[in-house]
Amino acid sequence: MQETRIHPSGYQALLSPFQSFVHKESIGGIILIAAAILAFLWANSKWASAYFALLDIPFALRWGSWSLEKPLLLWVNDGLMAIFFLMVGLEIKRELIVGELSSPREAALPMIAAVGGMVVPAAIYAAWNWGEEGIRGWGIPMATDIAFALGVLSLLGSRVPLSVKVFLTALAIVDDLGAILVIALFYTEQLSWASLIYSLILLALAYGYGRLGGRKMAVFGVLGIIAWYFMLKSGVHATIAGVLLAFAIPLQRTLNPQELKDWILSISEPAGFEETEVQIEELEEKVKQAASQLHSLEHQLEPWVAYGIMPLFALFNAGVALQGESMQISAVTVGVFGGLLIGKPLGIVGLSWLAEKLGWVSLPAGVNWRMLTAVGFLAGIGFTMSLFVASLAFGGTGMLDQSKIGVLSASVIAAIAGLILLKMSLSRRG
Fold first, then answer.
1. Residue 23: CB partners within 8 Å, gap ≥ 6?
2. Residue 86 is part of a domain; what is its CATH number?
3. Do the beta carbons of residue 400 and residue 317 sit within 8 Å?
4. What pTM, to 2 d.p., does this model score?
5. What's the pLDDT at 163?
6. How many structural domains does the chain have?
C-alpha cells in the first residue's frame, strides 16, 4: 500500500493556531533577549559612538516635492513598530471573537488580572513621582512583553501546563490593549484634527472594503500605509494606525472548517505519484480557503515581527550607556523598577484573589496560586512595550535612560524570579 504524505505547508496550516503562536513567540523572545544584550554591551563598549551614531543616521523617502525624513531610530519606532502593533491588533481581534477572550466566563480572570497588573504598577510609579516632571512616565510599568515572557517560559519546555501559557497570553493581550489606549489617550501632543480625520476616513474605507467582501491584501496595505502617514502627521502616535487597520481585516472564511474536514475524510487512496501531487495541491488550496484573511495575515507577519522587527527594536532601544545621568538612581528609575517588579505580581495576584473570593472567577484547570504568582512576576517583564512607552514619555531627555535602566533591571529580575517560582511549583506538583 502506497503511503500518502501531506505536504509540509498543508500540515502546518492544520496545526493549532495557539500552539504555533506560542512556539514563534518563544523563539522570538529568545532572539529578543539576545538583541537586547547585544545593544547593552555595544552601548558600553569602545564602539559605543558607532552605536549611537547608527541611531541618528537620517533616512528619507521622496516622491517629487514630497519627502519624509527621520533618523533610523524613529523609522524603527514609528514605522516598523506600526507593523508590530498591526500584529497586536490582529491578536486582540482574534482573541475577542474566537479565542480565549470570546467567552465572558473564560475572559473574566485574565481581564481582571490584567487590570490589577496595570493599575497597581501605575500607582506605585505615581507615588514615587507625584508632583515631579517624571510623573509623565506613569504608563511605562503598565506593559507586559509577551514574547519575552513566553521566551522565558520556553526554558522549562513541555513541563509548563498549556493552561499557564494560555492564561499568560490572554493576560498580556488585554495588557497590550490597555497600553494601546494609554498611548492614544495620554501620549498625544499638538493634535492635528485634519490629519487625524483623513487617517480615520482611510481606515473606515479599509473596514468597509473588508465588510463588503474585499480580500485583496494590497488594497488593505495601500490604505493602511496612507492612513499611517496621516496618523503620524496628526500627533497621535502612528502605531495606532496599525492597531485600527487590524480590525478592518476580515475574519470570515470562504470554506467552513467542517467542509474541510469532510473533504479530507472523503479523500480516496491515491493511485500513483501524479494523483498524490494533485491531492496535495487540492489540500493546500482547501486549507487556504478555510483560513480567514486575518489568520493568513497573522501567519505571514509572525516570523517578520518575532524574528526581525522586535529584535531590531530591542537593538535600537535597549542600549544604555552606564554613565552620566543614566547612572542616577532617580524617582523615575525606582518608580519603573518597583512598578514592574512589585506592582505587576501584586496587582495580578491581589485582584485575582479578591475576584476568586467574591465568586466572580475560578482558576483555570491545572493552575494554582503559586503558578499564578509566577505568572505575575513574568508579567513584570515589560521590556518592548515599556521601552516603547518610555520613548514616548521621555524621548530626548536624560530621564529616558533612567527609565530604561528601571525597565531592563526589573525585567531581568522579574524573569529570574518568575522562572524560579514556576520551576518550584512544577516540582512540587510533580
1. none
2. 1.20.1530.10
3. no
4. 0.76
5. 82
6. 1
Mean pLDDT, rounded, for 143-157: 77
* Residue 256 pLDDT exceeds 70: no
In a domain, 310, yes or no: yes
Domain with 164 in it: 12-187+237-253+291-429
Residue listed under C-alpha cell 496560586? 369
392 belongs to a structural domain: yes
Query: Cα 229 vs. chain centroid, distance in angstroms?
Result: 22
- Select from 351, 344, 348 the least CA-distant residue to 140: 344
Q: Which range is most confident: 28-32, 398-402, 425-429? A: 398-402
Amino acid, single-letter form, for residue 382: G
Q: pLDDT of 24-81, one tens digit each? A: 556 777 788 889 899 999 999 999 999 999 999 999 988 888 889 999 988 998 899 8
Question: In sequence order, which residues have a C-beta less than 8 Å from that of residue 239 and are 6 or more positions away?
Answer: 78, 81, 82, 84, 85, 183
Return the exposure string of 195-217: e unless at least 16 CB atoms fall within 10 Å of the residue's CB, then b: bbebbbebbeebbebbeeeeeee
CA angle (86 as vertex; 85, 89 as ends), nearest 5: 85
Q: Residues 74-100: what's their mean pLDDT?
A: 85
**Alpha-carbon span 223 to 229, nearest angstrom:** 10
Least confident of 79-93, 258-272, 307-321: 258-272
Distance of CA 236 to CAs 205, 228, 385, Å? Answer: 19, 10, 17
pLDDT mean over 411-430: 86
Q: Which residues of 312-342 are buried (b: 16+ CB within 10 A; e: fewer)?
A: bbbbbbbbbbeeeebeeebbbbbbbbbbbbb
In a domain, 208, yes or no: no
Q: Cβ(166)–Cβ(146) under 8 Å?
A: no
* 98 occurs within a structural domain: yes
Mean pLDDT of the chain: 83
Q: Is 80 exceeded by the pLDDT of residue 218?
A: yes
Angle 72-75-80 from CA coordinates, rounded to 5°: 130
| Residue 402: its H or E element | helix 398-429
Residue 270: what pLDDT?
60
Q: Which H helix or E strand runs over 420?
A: helix 398-429
CA nearest neighbour of 117 among 161, 73, 174: 174
φ/ψ of residue 61, rounded to 5: -105, 130
The SS3 of residue 68 is: strand
